[in-house]
Amino acid sequence: MSRLRTLAAIPLVVTLCNATASAQTLGGWSSAFWRTGVQPDDATIRQLLVYQNQLLAVGSFAGLSRAETNGIARWDGTGWLPFGATGCSEGGAIYAAVEFEGDLVVAGRFSSMDSTPAASVARWTGSDWQPLGDGFNDDVDALHVHAGELFAGGKFTLSGSTPTARLAKWNGTSWEQYAEVSATVNVITTYGTNVAIGGTFTIVNGGAASRLAVELAPGIWTDFLGGVNSTVNALVEAEGRLVVGGSFSLAGGVPVVRAAGWDGLTWQPMDLDANGSALGLQVADGVLYATGSFHGGGKLYVVKWEDSAWRALDDLVAPNGWCWSAVSWQGKLHVGGQFRAVGSDIVRGFARFDGVTWEAPEPPHGFEGTVWALEPHEGHLAIGGDITAIHGEAFPGVALWDSGTFLPLGDGLNGRVRALASTPLGLVAGGDFTASGTRPIPRVALWDGTEWQALGAGLDHTVTCLAWYDGAVHAGGYFEVGPSEAHVARWNGTEWESLGVGPRGILTAMGSYEGMLVVGGDFVFAGPSLASHVAAWTGTSWEGMGHGLPEPATCFQALGPVLAAGATNGGGFRAWNGVDWLEDPPLPGVTTVYSLGTFGGEFVAGTYSGVFVLRDGAWAPWPEAVTRGGVRAFAEFDGALWTGGDFQFAGPHSSASFGRWRDPLPLTRVQDVANQDRSNPLPEGLGVTYVVGSELLLRTSSERADIYDVRGRRVGTVSLLPVDESTRSFLWDGRNTGGSAVSSGIYFLR
């Protein structure tokens, strides 16, 4: 009987819930705002390889587009998917991968794969990860299969208690030392019938070997006339010679520039550029490619060897940053690295070349730039910052969220939007901008529903904060207004005017509280009053507020009778008790509060360490962390908590600069499941249509979902497609995330 013959005949139980198999609720951070490419910003694809007709990427990343996986992912032709479940341990990285005896072996710096303990090296068996012996005590930088045997190189010195000084061979049950190497092995390859290694070492088995060594006979190594004089990162046999790449300038005493070839007798220069370094050498479809950073002739990061010289693939367009690896797959050259664009296209870490032009393999998605301000306005959510694009469309400075869609606001604004205020006049924006399209609008603007309008002559320097107070728009910042050169101003309908002799310093925060305009900033006096970093305008005069704040305020937030302030440089959180500002309760381990908001009747604080909530008299971390950047804005809108900043993850999801949290809701079970009998190997896939409860419609209209087996293991990922107002469908090919057919059984959609 075929393995998949009864897959659909046995009921496929479909539920919708959180990421874990035991979850009983739906909610948390949205996965809708993922960003294309490697995540976070400093992430890198170290190697691309083809394994069982699949294109895999490994590296030091915590996600690839919407694939929530550490260090490894697979490309299905249109998008990235996890390979296995969660990848390597959090904070780890995979530096090398190779196919060995039909299995995939990966290595790098990690302590587990899919939660299975593994010390920097592991083996994928087709259904799960297994450790490979005792692993290693330090980084593994290279893997290679030579003459049917598996080799590993790196910084390690031990496998368990066995000495393995930086070069080891797998004997079928454990790792054993293959040669004693004095420093890091970066690369291993085959040259003729011999093992060749490169790195930073100078001694192999007690003999001189300057960054390069080839084993001529068991235990006998040579560096071919003295090796090279600096690091070797790449080795490959091509055109009948050993090609070496790195950061060296001499090979066997011959002047060379970052690359050279050994023909068996002599070294020949294969010069790249003195200002760069070769990170990889690969042969794809008979062509030799070098990847790295080569600045000569305009910054190049991937070149090909043609007519005895290195040449650009495209004379006009190229990746704009470091490239590590190149591989041919389905007739195109795919490149991985740390670049962020190809030409004018936003492409993070992964691009392809079709022989004529560079391509972005997947359409852009997510935010480009930092969100500094969020403001509910007339049933929408206004978003401001130094954003430039959303989902690949131009959104200069500002956007509007409208029931699942981002809308532009006219021509946008040409600089950072630092503050937004919803007022009876309309939406007001303040910041560093000077124009909307071709229309001058200096630093403060009013959206009239059709276009941005200047408010008088504008202001002469940055606006950092806005508030509606006493029937008028008020602004604070770096600017100066009136004879007193005030940094706070009121729009009187015709022009900007000062509020007496205000605070004598830059303003950074503003809010309305109990009939007063409260401002914070870098000042110690407001008019004649002593006011340490915070002051209140009563409508007629400026007053200090208690002993003030220890550092400039970054934000204010009122909740009922309580006014709270966030501050910089150790100022943390302070609450006004009517007499003075108290650090009550303190926010442990946080020096700067970037933003304050409310959600469900509780204070929330945004910091570089994520989101905190003030609950039961104490601060607690948010249930799911916001990481890799600061949270600089909050808004409570449409039953959700919205966040903005320069963060890159919200919970497990890629959610660059913009996030949405919904409190968990009771799980709604599927009301109808179609059971269909299909033959192996499911050429057209397994299709299931089902009806969901109305409260789930918005959350399932364009999401992916995971398929779990009865043991709670994630085996696949599918897209949920809307059929009509209340029906969703998905198509599954009966394969797991590694591309292998699954066994018959009951599976769960989550």
TrEMBL record:
Keywords: Signal. The keyword Signal applies. Coiled coil: none annotated. It comes from the Bacteria. Residues 1-23 form the signal peptide. GO terms for cellular component: plasma membrane of growing cell tip. This is FlgD Ig-like domain-containing protein. It comes from Eiseniibacteriota bacterium.
